[in-house]
Automatic annotation (TrEMBL):
Signal peptide per UniProt: 1-19
One GO location term (cellular component): Golgi apparatus
Database matches in PANTHER family: SER/THR-RICH PROTEIN T10 IN DGCR REGION (PTHR17985), TRANSPORT AND GOLGI ORGANIZATION PROTEIN 2 HOMOLOG (PTHR17985:SF8)
Keywords: Signal
Pfam family, one: TANGO2
Protein name: Uncharacterized protein
Superkingdom of origin: Eukaryota
Native species: Coptotermes formosanus
GO biological process: Golgi organization; protein secretion
């Protein structure tokens, strides 16, 4: 039996802490190791309509999920282009928007980057984004461009206290959550440590099935990571229970109609072969007894 929450659930005083991302890149991997390993959770309201990861009709070089929320249709939180682009968007909680008169949907930041309809370089796109950052609610944007020679990763945040310009991110294992990059939540730091161990132990192509299961276990990690002063500060008006439920990698607040509803894993080997895997709750979502469905899209990067 499905249990449906009323639309008014979104009006309850819950501050969502949307999404977590772990990323490993290696510009000079051994022949049997992955060049890129990405694992991410999307946390969102269960009633927000979403299209599962697929190759986009208007741009079949792009694979990713899409937002179907009225007024936000076509946006995305994570997507990949076979032209060698990956984009991930995470919101930043506990910040005021820089220009309250503006509230542009952030999901198109991802879509615009991976489709690259303006034929902009990585740097040109980020320069334009940084000039218009005041138009959006606070976010962290992780952009990746992959060629045969290198994987270039940059981070940009429009939140207060962050640098006004995009920053290069070095190779190795990294993680992001919903605070500014210089002040990660405890669950992000703990997740990075576990993610590094997984990559070191199973980051070979012949261990792909074990690697995927270990990454999925990380994304379903429900251990609380408290105390966390930064999380408490950003959820200042929330109850201790809500803070605790947001201190886990896998967020589960079914009574509020909110939580982790999608897991994404991307693997790219030395020859540019991509596995884009997604596990998501089947809609309409029963938050107390969800059904998970999965897809695995494979493709080849054009420049590798």
């Amino acid at each position: 039996m499905h249990v449906f929450l009323p639309l008014s659930a979104r009006c309850l005083k819950v501050i969502p802490v949307m999404c977590i991302l772990f990323l490993h890149t290696d510009n000079s991997p051994a022949p049997n190791k992955f060049r890129l390993i990405l694992a991410s959770n999307r946390d969102e309201y269960y009633q927000r309509p979403t299209q599962q990861a697929h190759f986009w009709d208007k741009d079949p070089t792009v694979v990713g999920g899409r937002d179907l929320e009225p007024g936000r249709e076509g946006g995305s939180w994570l997507a990949l282009s076979t032209q060698g682009r990956i984009a991930v968007l995470l919101n930043v909680k506990g910040e005021n928007i820089q220009d309250p008169s503006q509230n542009t949907g952030r999901g198109f930041i991802v879509a615009d980057f991976v489709t690259n309809k303006q034929h902009e370089t990585h740097e040109e796109y980020l320069e334009k984004l940084s000039k218009n950052g005041h138009k959006y609610n606070p976010f962290n944007f992780i952009s990746i461009v992959i060629s045969s020679k290198e994987i270039k990763v940059q981070q940009y945040s429009n939140a207060s206290g962050c640098k006004s310009q995009p920053e290069n991110v070095g190779s190795g294992a990294r993680g992001w959550g919903n605070s500014i990059p210089d002040r990660p939540f405890c669950k992000v730091n703990a997740g990075i440590s576990r993610f590094k161990d997984i990559v070191e132990a199973y980051g070979k192509t012949e261990d792909k099935s074990i690697l995927v299961q270990e990454l999925l276990s990380l994304l379903k990690w429900n251990k609380s990571h408290l105390p966390d002063p930064e999380l408490r500060r950003r959820l200042i008006n929330q109850t201790p229970s809500i803070v605790e439920k947001n201190s886990t990698v896998f967020v589960n607040i079914p009574e509020q109609g909110y939580g982790t509803r999608t897991h994404s894993i991307i693997l790219i080997d030395g020859q540019g072969k991509v596995d884009f895997m997604e596990w998501t709750m089947k809609e309409p979502i029963d938050p107390f007894n969800p059904t998970w469905i999965s897809v695995n899209h494979t493709c080849q990067l054009e420049e590798c």
